[in-house]
Amino acid sequence: MDLSNLKPAEGSVKGQGKRVGRGQGSGKGGTATRGHKGAKSRSGYSKKVGFEGGQMPIQRRVPKFGFTNINRKEYQGVNLDTIQQLVDDKKINDTLDFETLVSLGLVGKNELVKILGRGELKSKLNVTAHKFTATAKAAIEAAGGEAVTL
User: Fold this and answer.
1) Which among 41, 98, 122, 124 would be 20 to 30 A from 69, CA to CA?
2) Model confidence over 22-68: pLDDT tens digits?
3) Distance in Å from the first CA to the final CA of the chain
4) Side-chain-side CA neighbours of residue 49 (13 Å)
5) Which CATH number do you get for residue 106?
6) What's an example GO BP annotation here (predicted)?
7) Structural domain for 94, as ranges
């Protein structure tokens, strides 16, 4: 064992890749594999998002229409059957509030919650949320619980 036969461990050194633009003698000089002229041959080139080589891009060809309300409130829906499943799994017992929903991963901490009326609720629960559909509110109250709006 001496300095002349030292080698790195197998698989530890990645190939360095081809070194382009290092003179004519390397075989990768001149245009440095970029071809002749055009935007892609220049230094500092980066393709813009949606650029189609000068053709009118699709986001400009397609007509725009409609209206987006900037004041729209988005609610994350939670159905009654989901709530009943939580009761069956003994994850909640008599109250369901926003913090519980967040900790169970049903909603995000910055989202607004709306209780929706799909499924049926058999247990008496005090449910607290930002909004309720009429059917959900009726079902909760029919089961003997109460729906509290935040």
Assistant:
1) 98
2) 999 988 999 999 999 988 999 999 989 999 988 999 999 999 999 99
3) 77
4) 1
5) 3.100.10.10
6) translation
7) 75-149
